[in-house]
Amino acid sequence: MTALEELNRQVAQCQECDLAKTRNHVVPGEGAEDASIMLIGEAPGFYEDQQGRPFVGAAGRFLDELLKSIGFDRSMVYICNIIKCRPPENRDPMPAEIETCRKWLDRQIEIISPKVIVTLGRHSLARFLKGSSISKVHGKPYTIDGGVCFPLYHPAAALHQQSLRKTIETDFLKLPEVLSQAGSAASGQAEPEPEPRQLSMF
Ligand code: URA
Questions:
Q1: How many angstroms is it from 54 CA to the middle of ligand 1?
Q2: 121: domain CATH number?
Q3: pLDDT tens digit sequence for 47-70
Q4: CB of 87 sitting under 6 A from ligand 1
């Protein structure tokens, strides 16, 4: 069993918050264990909870299109969420739920060790660039803990607002360059960054 499979086994048994009582399936995440890009959304929704897979509804289909626009597919990245169980009625995740689930995400990041973490939406953004506003930081890469965080709007938000759709499509097209810069930064970087710093490429 790989480290990620073992982690998924543990996550599937988690009973540490009340979401365990209402979920149908835990949604740990999916993709390549050695992915250089990790995309992190908010929380599973109705279809994800039914299937135990991340981003399988309308937002997921849009995410697939975005990946295709840069020549990627799901098997080449890792996709997960800040919390691993669906909040009832798709409400926002609560701070205590995010905190309880934090250890699972931390371990996923440790195992996969991505070069670029793409945050999808404000809850995911808050985990990496605390206090920043998505309208200011989207589409700009930041160095963080020796890696790169690339914040994007949530694909579901883009489905409801045409102007955001264009924005996320344009931002997404920058991802290959962010990845290539992150690769060269990682090989030349001796010390982790003490504070997030915006990379100057865009
Ligand atoms: N929205 C998310 O944030 N995650 C999913 O898995 C699906 C929709």
A1: 6
A2: 3.40.470.10
A3: 999 999 999 999 999 999 999 999
A4: no
